[in-house]
Specification:
The chain is an alpha+beta fold. It has two domains: 138 residues, Fructose-1,6-Bisphosphatase, Chain A, domain 1, CATH 3.30.540.10; 109 residues, D-Maltodextrin-Binding Protein, domain 2 (3-Layer(aba) Sandwich), CATH 3.40.190. The protein contains seven helices and 15 strands. Helix 1 packs antiparallel against helix 2 and helix 5 runs parallel beside helix 6.
Length: 263
């Protein structure tokens, strides 16, 4: 079953990716906002979501779907698809080649397969629970770095002013203790980059299920620990993804900095 779910996920993220690339030149013509004036959504976000949701309704009509733009529809099969049609919409608007279509399938509430496709680079990350994570044909195993002071750490920032201010305080305190910070602007790609060892670890507050589902599974299947803080699961309060050798040290610093608290 999971092989079939992944095959469908791959087909859908590739099709949605082709659509958003084709529409990028006119994407700025219809831009609206969500939580803040800088939290944007384009017509191509909505078009890509329609493509995936309508395809799922045709091919798997009993499944549920949770989409960033259209919300949730309930199903009867125990399978729920979790979709971000364009993760990194601001990058997409500015023609920065770091945006992705992210699609995961949960089975009985547990993420079973995930696919993240960057149509600008044509890179495809995939995972099946218990069977590993892949970038194309390459098996992913995370970063070999073991020392926090040598760690290149990715993070992201929310759209609200108060949350950004709090997150900046955390980053300012952490920065002297690590190699450097990277901020790419697409959580799914951050998680995939950590899985591929392009960065050594990643943390962020404020992720939604569609930000985390596929990329989080890919990171787990690459051997990373994907958690919250102080025993909490990864979620909106905080997501920390790091290889076991780095996780404890980075976790300790984020706890001390109260990275999961505030607005």
């Amino acid at each position: 079953m999971t092989d079939a779910l992944l095959s469908l996920a791959v087909d859908l993220v590739r099709r949605a990716g082709a659509l958003v690339v084709a529409g990028r030149a006119s994407a700025g013509a219809e831009v609206t906002t969500k939580s803040t004036p800088t939290d944007v959504v384009t017509e191509m976000d909505r078009a890509a979501e329609r493509l995936v949701v309508e395809s799922l309704r045709t091919l798997r009509p009993g499944d549920g779907v949770l989409g960033e733009e259209t919300g949730e529809t309930w199903g009867t099969t125990g399978v729920r698809w979790v979709l971000d049609p364009i993760d990194g919409t601001v990058n997409y608007l500015y023609d920065l080649p770091a945006y992705a279509v992210s699609l995961a399938a949960e089975v009985d509430g547990i993420v079973a397969v995930g696919a993240v496709f960057n149509p600008a680079s044509e890179e495809l990350w995939t995972a099946i629970r218990g069977e590993g994570a892949w970038l194309g044909a390459r098996r992913l195993r995370g970063s070999p770095v073991t020392s926090l002071d040598q760690a290149l750490v990715a993070t992201g920032f929310g759209y609200g002013t108060d949350r950004r201010r709090a997150q900046a305080v955390v980053v300012a305190a952490l920065l002297p203790e690590i190699r450097d910070i990277r901020r790419f602007g697409a959580a799914s790609l951050d998680l995939c980059s950590a899985a591929a060892g392009r960065v050594d670890a990643y943390f962020e507050r404020g992720l939604k299920p569609w930000d985390l589902a596929a990329g989080g599974l890919i990171a787990v299947e690459a051997g990373l620990l994907v958690t919250g803080l102080s025993g909490a699961p990864a979620g909106e309060d905080l997501v920390l993804a790091a290889p076991p050798a780095l996780h404890a040290a980075l976790h300790g610093r984020l706890v001390a900095l109260r990275a999961d608290e505030g607005p």
